[in-house]
Amino acid sequence: MMIDMENKSLGMIIREERKKKGLTQAQLGRLIGLKESRVSKIEHGAPITPEVASFILGKMGSALQINVVDKAGFNQEESEFIVSVINNFADEKKIPLTKAYNYIVTFKGIDFMRQYQDIEKTLSNHEIVSDVSRVCANNGGRL
CA of 11: how far to CAs of 44, 52, 53, 63, 65, in Å? Predict the structure, then answer.
């Protein structure tokens, strides 16, 4: 499951930013701690987990002084909040992280979190997971 905001995949964003900096895939890989072949696969749309996406976004931000998260449609604060909620959701529901991510994306939990993150951040992790669960269930989700 590739993170894709407004028809622009994370891989496309990474490729664009790498090329703007004049780097090869091998050079970028060395900077962020990935093999050249993995960078290539990601740029070409290989599925990645939210943890890998978060790792890459963080590394690219520090290594290249760019905010890839903003380019994907999330600012850094939103990204950290959403990744945290997905992790808590997976833990609480005792499901794999990839299943939690797919469920939350498919059944509009991400949209809800973006819209109401300021309010949700005032709640406990359990309450946030409960709210996201309710939104997903209201949009046809069943775990």
Answer: 6, 12, 10, 17, 18
Q: Which residue has the tokens 């994370």?
A: 10
Query: What's the pLDDT tens digit per position in 39-93?
Result: 999 888 887 776 677 677 777 766 666 554 444 566 667 777 887 888 889 889 9
Q: How far apart are CA 39 and CA 25, in angstroms?
A: 6
| SS3 letters across the chain | CCCEECCEEHHHHHHHHHHHCCCCHHHHHHHHCCCHHHHHHHHCCCCCCHHHHHHHHHHHHHHHCCCHHHHCCCCHHHHHHHHHHHHHHHHHHCCCHHHHHHHHHHCCHHHHHHHHHHHHCCCCHHHHHHHHHHHHHHCCCCC
Go through the chain and tell me how many residues it has.
Answer: 143
Kindly report the pTM of this predicted structure. 0.55
Q: State residue 55's pLDDT score.
A: 73
